[in-house]
Amino acid sequence: MATGASNDVKIAQKIKLKPIKQVARQFGIINKYIESYGDYKAKVRIEILRKGKAKKPGKYIVVSGLTPTPYGEGKTVTTIGLSMALNKMKKRSFCTIREPSLGPFFGVKGGGSGGGYSQVLPYEDVNLHLNGDFHAIASAHNLCASFLDNSIFWSNPLDIDLNNINFKRVLDIADRCLRNVNIAMGSKFDGISRKSGFDITAASEIMMIVSQSQNFQDLTNRLEKIIVAFNKKGKPVTAKDLKVVGSMALLLKDAIHPNLVQTIEHTPCLVHTGPFANIAHGNSSIVADRIALKLGDYAVTESGFGADIGAEKFFDIKCRTSGLKPDLCVLVCTIRALKVHSGDFEIKSGKTVDPHILRENISSVERGCSNLDKQINNIKCFGVPVVVTINRFSHDTDKEINAVKKFALAQGADDVCVSEFWSQGSAGGMDLAKKVIDTIKKKKSEFRFLYPVNIPIRDKINRIAKTMYGAKEVVFSETAQSKMTSYKKLKLDEQPVCMAKTQLSLSHDSKRKGRPRGFKLPINDLNIANGAGFINVLCGDIKTMPGLPQKPRGEKIEVDKTGRIVNI
After folding, report:
1. Which of 332, 455, 494, 505 has the highest CB neighbour count under 10 A?
2. Structural domains of the chain, ranges and CATH numbers in brackets
3. Does the predicted model carry a pTM greater than 0.90?
C-alpha cells in the first residue's frame, strides 16, 4: 500500500541501472537510432519511424484522473507501473510521459518521474535539465523574441504595432515578478521601450510546437506560422517575416528527438516535451507516442491533471493532429482525493495531509464521488472505454474501496480495480493490466472528437465549458470577443481551442471542489498559437507564469560533499 513519497530518492539510488543501449536493444531499438547522453539516458532518433517492417500498431492507452488535489493522485506512478505490469505479462510495452519543469520542482509540486517502486531513472537527471530540451526550447523562443525587438529597434520595417504584440519571453523558473515587465528602460541604444512579460517555458508555443511536430519539416513549417505580433493594419507578423526560423530550427534539432530512460524495472520510457495541462495542452510528444506504438504491443501515455483538461486536450488536440485513436483510458483516483471533493476538509497547497482525512469516512467518499462521476462521463463523451483504478494508500479501508468500486461501475466505468504500484512496482498492478487487456478485447473504442474545428470559436468554447466542466453559461470579456472577431476575419478561427483553466476545480474557481453546478465561466482573453495549431483561451485569473509558495521545496534541497543531491 502506498504511503508518503519521502523515500522515492532513496529507493531510486539503490537501483542498479542497466546501460541504456542494452535497454534499447531489448525493445528493438538498434544503436543506429540511439544517441547516448552518458550511460543511462539517450535520444531516440525520429528516423526510426521510417525504418523497419511495418507492423500493426500497438494499443494506445491514455492515463487520466480526477480533478487533482495538492496531495497528488499518482497518475505518473500508474502510467509507469501499468507499462511495467504489461511487460511482466510478456506484452511489450512503452510508457511516454512529459519532461518535468524546474518551476514545480523547486516550488510545490515536486518532480514528475513517478515514485516509490514505480518511477523512471536516473531520478536527478530526469527531473533536472533532461538532455537539454527545455534549454533548447527556451533559447529558440527567446531568440525569436530578440529578433522581434531587434526588428522594431531598426526602424520597424514590418510596421509592428507595439500595442499588439503577443509573444513574450520564457523562463523555466516560477517567478511571479516577471509576469508583467517593462523592457528597454535604458537609453535609446537599449531598444524600444514597451510593456511585456514572461511565461514559464512549459507554456511556450515552441514547447507545444515540438510536442505537436511529427518530423523536421513539420517542425519548420510550424515555426514559420508563429504569429508574434500584428502590424498597424491588423495583419499577422510571423516568425518567418522575422527571418528567424532557420536559427530556431537549429537550436531545436536535437530537442525534437524523444528521450529514452528506464523504469525502476528496466523497461523503456520515452520522456519528451513538458507542456502544462492547465496553461498549455498538457501532453507529451506525438513522435514519442508513434515510436512507442511502432515498437510495442502497448503504448501507455499520460495526460496532465484531470480528465476535464488534460484528457480533453489529448483527444481534441493531440489525437486530432496525430490521427491516432486511443483504445482505452485508465482513470486514476484516490480515497483521500475523493474525500477532498466532498468539501468536508480545508486543503491548502504545500501543507501536510490533514490527519482527519486519513480516517475511515464512507460518507465523505461517496459525496466526493461526484467528481469521479463527472470525469467518467467526460471520457465517455469521446467514445473511449474507461477503466477506473484506485491508487491505494495504507490508510484506505476495504469499505471505502468497495464504495468507490460500486459507484464507478454504476456510473458507467467498464471496469474498476485497486492498484498499488508505489509500494509493489509491477506486482501491485497485475490486476489492472489484466483488466486493461480484457477491456480492449471486449470493448471497441468508438473514438470521436467533442467538436468540429469549423464551428465558431465561441461555440467550441461553449461546448467544452458546458460538457466538460458543467458550466451553465460562458461569459466573454470585450477583449475575448474582439479577438474572436479578429481571428475570424483573418481566417485563423478554424483550429481547436486550448483552454487555460485552474486544474484544482472543474470550474474556474480552485476552491470549488466536487462537481460544481450552475456557475458562469469567465473568458478573459484569447491568444493565437498558430504554429502549435490551436487557440489559447484564458479562463478566470489563470496565470501563465506561476509563483513560488511561501516555503518553496527548493529551500530544503542540498548537495552533500560527495555531490549527491539530498532532500528532494
Report:
1. 332
2. 1-44+57-445 (3.40.50.300), 457-539 (3.10.410.10)
3. yes
